[in-house]
Amino acid sequence: MAPPHRSARVAVLASSAQRSRSDRYPSRVRSSTVRRLILAGLVLLSLALLTIAFRSPTGGALHDIQGYGSSALRPFQVAAERVARPFRDAYNYVSTLADAKSENKKLREEVRNWRAQALVTLAAQKQNDSLKSLLNFEQGPAYPKDYRAVNASVISFPSGPFDEQLTISAGTSSGVKLLAPVMSADGLVGHVTNVGPATARVTLITDPDSSVAAVDLTTKVTGLIRHGQGNTLILDRVPKEAVVTKGNVIVTEGTRDRRYPDLYPYGLPIGQVLSVGRSDIASFLTVQVTPFANLGSLDAVAVLVSTKPAPSLP
Fold first, then answer.
1. Other CB atoms closer than 10 Å to residue 276's CB: what's the count?
2. Of 57, 237, 238, 266, whose CA is between 20 and 30 Å from 174?
3. How far is residue 211's CA from residue 231's CA, in Å, rounded to a whole number?
4. What average pLDDT does this structure show over 104-116?
5. Residue 83 phi, psi dihedral angles, 5° rounding
6. Residues contacting 148, CB < 8 A, separation 6+
7. How confident is the model at residue 290 (pLDDT cuts 50, 70, 90)?
8. Cβ(308)–Cβ(180) under 8 Å?
9. How confident is the model at residue 13 (pLDDT cuts 50, 70, 90)?
10. What is d(CA 128, CA 300) in angstroms, rounded to the nearest whole number?
11. Neighbouring residues of 208: CB distance < 8 A, sequence distance ≥ 6
12. Segments of 90-228 assigned E as strands
């Protein structure tokens, strides 16, 4: 049997433990209630302050309090501004850089399109200028009688250093004939050596196998235009006693004998005398001629087609 004082102590401990457990829940309820009341009070106070702020005049105690509060919070606002500024600047930099790249790409595309359009326009204008020059040639005094012009574009140039032929965009369907003379607006280019329905091949006067009967307009000295060094021509077969001067104009001589008609009519401009040389061991003068036509840069040419009826066979 337990002593009396031990029973009393157990009873007291049990009694205190039970009271502490029963006191926990009311304290939690009170804390939650207090928090709700404080939150409700703050909401009501905020609404009241907003109402007073909107209804109160611009100068008053409330506005003074707001000013003091704003002044008190100013250092925190400045600090927050300084902290946020690098991030804001970095964002603005990245955003601006992305916009600049997009704008730059758009501008490059626009420039590319404008450049292509400008090149097309320039090429068309250059070809148009060449055709206008050919028209002026056709209406000028140097244009031969009994011939009509078939204007054509140059579609291919010599393929190598030893190739002196080009292709034009006109053929038999346009009236182009074999051996027909070919002119630029500046001077003689060559003659047709191969012709198809829509295109034709032209052999230039700089071809080693080409020879053109020519005459000096000033001195009436005659000779044969042949291939020379570089982009020049030579007036060959000129006697040493003949007088040929630098700067004289050389044109086609035309047909001397009707039994042997020449490919080229009289008076087609060929070039200008660049130099005249004499040699003791040479039988003829060395007359160097610069062609009027820029044979390495032709855009359009005119094929001269005879309008004379073909001679009837006996």
1. 17
2. 266
3. 15
4. 79
5. -70, -40
6. 175, 304, 305, 307
7. very high
8. no
9. very low
10. 9
11. 164, 226, 227
12. 147-156, 165-168, 181-183, 188-195, 200-204, 212-216, 222-227
Closest CA to 287 of 303, 298, 272: 272
Indicate the range of 49-63, 91-105, 173-187 predicted with least confidence. Answer: 49-63
State pTM to two decimals.
0.59
Please answer whether residues 283 and 114 qualify as being in contact, where contact means their C-beta atoms are separated by less than 8 angstroms: no
* 119 burial type by CB count under 10 A (0-12 exposed, 13-18 middle, 19+ buried): exposed
Supply the DSSP symbol for 172. Answer: G
Picking from 180, 186, 174, the residue whose alpha carbon sits closest to that of residue 150 is: 174
Distance CA 127, CA 299 (A): 6
Q: How far apart are CA 287 and CA 292, in angstroms?
A: 16
Rounded alpha-carbon distances, angstroms, from residue 289 to 184, 233, 297: 17, 5, 18
d(CA 299, CA 169): 11
Beta strands in 105-221 (DSSP E): 147-156, 165-168, 181-183, 188-195, 200-204, 212-216
- pLDDT attached to residue 256: 81
Cα separations (Å) of 141 from 162, 221, 247?
Answer: 35, 22, 21
Backbone angles phi, psi at 41, to 5 degrees: -65, -40
pLDDT tens per residue, range 242-254: 999 999 999 999 9
Q: What is the mean pLDDT of the chain?
A: 80
What CA–CA distance (Å, rounded) separates 63 from 69? 10
Classified as helix, coil or strand, 229 is coil
Question: Look-up: residue for tokens 């003074």?
Answer: 64
pLDDT in tens, 147-204: 999 999 999 988 777 789 999 999 999 999 999 999 998 899 999 999 999 999 999 9
Tell me how many degrees the CA angle 301-152-199 measures, rounded to the nearest 5. Answer: 120
- pLDDT of residue 234 exceeding 90, the answer is yes
